[in-house]
Amino acid sequence: MLTYLKLKELGQSNEKRVFCTQDFDKCVHSRNFITFGYYKGNQPIKMSLYPSLEDMKVDQMARAQVAHAAQAAYPPAYPSSGHSSGYSASAPPYPTTPTSKPVSDDKLASLYPVLDEYMGLQLPQHMQQYQSTAVVPASQNTVAVPSTKPTTMVAPISGNSVGLARAQVTHGLREVILCKDGNGRVGLRVQAVNKGVFIILVQKNTPAAMAGLRFGDQILMINDVAVAGFSMDDVHKMIKKADPNRITMVVRDRPFERTITVHKDSAGTVGFGFKNGKIINIVKDSSAARNGVLIDHNLLEVNGQNVVGLKDKETSAIIREAASPVTVTIMPAFVYDHMMKNTASSFIKKTMDHSIPDL
């Protein structure tokens, strides 16, 4: 039985809502509870999202510097005492305005490490601008209120990465309108997985490639017909019989896939090894380890460029030539193997669209 608790954070006005699997006394004393989230009143506090751990640490460090500078520049104004004493209420025994000049940035610089040396990263030039403009100093006696708007991605290091933008996986739905080429083909092949229909091949220079279909997309409808439970042959026949001038598909964006942004170290490596496209090892204390890259996952894209079917040395060359950070798209190996079990790798390598997608 789950017991619902609301615990006040010490020294804060925010509530921490938890679910307890034991009775109240045992739960509180053993701290055996699961955090559900932070609330202010009845409104959840929206926390920032980051594409990588390095982005999060650099953002937190920059905000700490700005907060320390603002605190030094604007000391808190203490309320006047209402109790009887030797001092009048209009003349408190302590200063209520700054008695010295604000601390300069040069003096604060020694309090925190230099950002371009943090975690061995070579930070881009725009990061220096971010450091000074990430937070607008608040005016005196103002209070920061957590935003209740939808959370946006904060990326002080990765914000200018074109690969991050190309590799975005939304899991959302979109409608795609295709036509057939001169040979009567649309340029895709599908596979049935768990009663769903998934794209396993998008051929280069075909209507499917030009429409932006990608490996792992799930087809939900074709010409207003739901295809859940259809076999691979059923879908291929349906496409073959469709009007060559207009084929409408409703597609879910790659539900089995996720992206991870990693940063190269001083040697230009990202911290994981792979064989036949499957990740087999993670380097300790690397960016891959810090950001949650897992073994037994297949590499599908590097900075949005499809690498399915490529030889390992070709994929390695793409990673090596890419600027840091690098965003990889991965899928659990057991799902990948099930999708590709009846498809020859040589055919995939020869026909798959490996071009760099447009933004």
Structural description of this entry:
The protein has 359 residues and is of the alpha+beta class. The chain has helices at residues 24-30, 53-73, 105-108, 125-133, 162-166, 207-210, 232-241, 287-290, 312-321, 333-340, 345-351, and strands spanning 3-8, 15-20, 33-40, 43-44, 173-178, 188-193, 196-202, 218-222, 225-226, 247-252, 258-262, 272-275, 278-282, 297-302, 305-306, 326-332. The strands form 4 sheets. Strands 5, 6, 7, 8, 9 and 10 form a 6-stranded antiparallel sheet that branches. A 4-stranded antiparallel sheet has the order 1-2-3-4. Strands 11-16-14-15 form a 4-stranded antiparallel sheet. A hairpin with a 2-residue loop joins strand 12 (272-275) and strand 13. The chain is elongated. The chain starts with a strand and ends in an 8-residue tail after the last helix. 27% of the residues are buried. The model is unreliable at 1-39 and 130-150 (pLDDT under 50).
Record keyword descriptors for this entry.
359 residues; disordered N terminus; 25% helix; Syntenin-1; PDZ_sf; four-stranded antiparallel β-sheet; 11 helices; alpha+beta; six-stranded antiparallel β-sheet
